Amino acid sequence: MNVLLLGASGRIGQRTANELRARGHTVTGVSRSGTVEEIDGDGFVAITGDATDADDMAKLAAGHDAIVSALGPSDDESPEILTEMIEAVIEGLRRADVERLVWTGGAGGLSVGPETRLIETDDFPEEWVPVARAAIDAYEILSEADDLEWSYLAPAALIEPGERTGEYRTADGELVTDDEGDSYISMEDFAVALVDELEEKTAVHTYLGTGY
After folding, report:
1. What domains sit in the chain, N to C, each tagged with a CATH number?
2. Contact status, residue 212 vs residue 170, Cβ threshold 8 Å
3. pLDDT digit string (tens) for 110-135?
4. For position 128, what pLDDT does the model report?
5. Disulfide-capable partner of 73 in 77, 162, 171, 189 (CB 3.0 to 4.6 Å)?
6. How far apart are CA 34 and CA 147, in angstroms?
């Protein structure tokens, strides 16, 4: 598969690129700088792109089989840039006639109980609220794109660099927790889950939670 990977220079983006490469996919990695470090092996090219520009997204998406997004706001950007990005990416895909999109979202909108989302719980860190709300807004925009084969993949409440085990669980619209109620996944296994969904299309038009 010929994949356009947005946000390729980030920690999740780099791991996703390596997971795609390990499975034999060809990857074009997009970043603001046009440089991506720590990508192993052939079958990868890094290019510059602006994920808030629909014209740029259409040009870059053309000729690819699918788009994978590991986009997120940088430290000096407002979280609301997520909605600008998703609008530009959706429009770009439509112009390029590419239907498949896997978007890395946030866990804040996942359900943790009757009519309660993670972002609405007392333990949700206040400093995470703005980006979580922006990610929810981005999901709501994506959910209207019925003409695209989109999947919105969210990590567990805690995601950190760690080990690639190849093991994980998923839940449709719900936060994945273990027997102790903890919600965690390594970035490496989140990349596994993301590429599995890209290949298998088991959660099209779905907000999918992941975790152990």
Report:
1. 2-211 (3.40.50.720)
2. no
3. 999 999 999 999 999 999 999 999 99
4. 94
5. 77
6. 30
Percent of the chain with pLDDT over 70: 99
| Displacement of CA 129 from its chain's centroid (Å) | 18
Q: What is the pLDDT of residue 34?
A: 85
Q: For 19-35, how does the pLDDT look when each residue is reduced to its tens digit (9 = 90+)?
A: 999 999 999 999 988 88
User: Could you tell me if 44 and 79 are in contact, meaning their C-beta atoms sit under 8 angstroms apart?
Assistant: no
What is the identity of the amino acid at 114?
P
Q: Which amino acid is at 64?
A: H
